[in-house]
Specification:
- The two termini are 31 Å apart.
- A nine-stranded mixed beta sheet has the order 1-4-3-2-11-6-7-8-10. Strands 5-9 form a two-stranded parallel ribbon.
- By secondary structure, it is of the alpha/beta class.
- Helices cover 27% and strands 22% of the residues.
- The chain is globular and about 45 Å long.
Length: 232
């Protein structure tokens, strides 16, 4: 099963953590990933590192793999709560264009419709055009919300449902998920905020997550191995 790999990695990290956060109630992970689609080793290792190092400081966290168009969501106790496909920015890249948060969607140049990479602290808050959204990075107007359907020609629901991640780049930068995943997993998990880790397209892991990259490098020899407009 796809999520079994992630669960094993995080379980090992929990064993290594000196003061794990107690789980309030049992959680059954929701797996919406296409059949046969795997979670990368990098995502598994990053999740384990977040728990072991307590990088999220006990808050829930999510990891987004842009290459695979996936999101994995973890509770504050480090337990996997769910995984699902995502739609992301139509442009490849990890940058945040200066002043982009103040632009209307139609004004954002195609090259700047990126989903930026990095570590972000976010939570629910208002937007001027999409109601209350789950902000990943308020300053760059990047949020997670249910799949937008305002432009039928974009075929966002169809792209999200396809088994391949190759057609999942279509948004202006925001991250779209299936409405049921948003309501069942994201809304409850991040009601009090959390930390979001977005893997890079072009930047290195050392540039994006330097502490994780350093920890990973050391482990390899041992292991052998107001409100803003929403960029929907």
């Amino acid at each position: 099963m796809t999520l079994a790999f992630a669960s094993v990695g995080v379980a090992r990290a929990q064993d290594a953590a000196t003061q794990p956060v107690a789980s309030a109630e049992p959680v059954v992970a929701v797996d919406l990933l296409p059949e046969g689609q795997q979670v990368s080793d990098t995502v598994i290792q990053l999740a384990g590192w977040v728990v072991a190092s307590r990088d999220s400081e006990g808050y829930p966290f999510a990891i987004m793999d842009k290459a695979a168009a996936q999101i994995l969501v973890f509770g504050g106790d480090g337990r996997l709560r769910g995984a699902a496909p995502v739609l992301i920015g139509s442009a490849t890249g990890d940058h945040i264009a200066p002043g982009i948060a103040g632009l209307a969607l139609r004004e954002i140049p195609g090259r700047d419709r990126t989903t930026p990479a990095g570590r972000f602290v976010g939570g629910f808050g208002p937007s001027t055009d999409a109601g209350r959204v789950l902000w990943v990075d308020y300053d760059s107007a990047i949020s997670i919300h249910p799949t937008a359907t305002g432009v039928p020609a974009e075929k966002r629901p169809e792209r999200l449902a396809s088994p391949s991640p190759d057609d999942n780049r279509v948004t202006h930068g925001c991250i779209n998920v299936a409405p049921e995943f948003y309501e069942q997993i994201l809304r409850s998990t991040f009601e009090r905020g959390g930390v979001f880790y977005v893997l890079p397209d072009e930047a290195t892991l050392a540039e994006t997550f330097p502490e994780f990259a350093q920890s990973r490098a050391h482990a390899e020899p041992e292991d052998g191995a107001g409100a803003r407009p929403d960029r929907q």
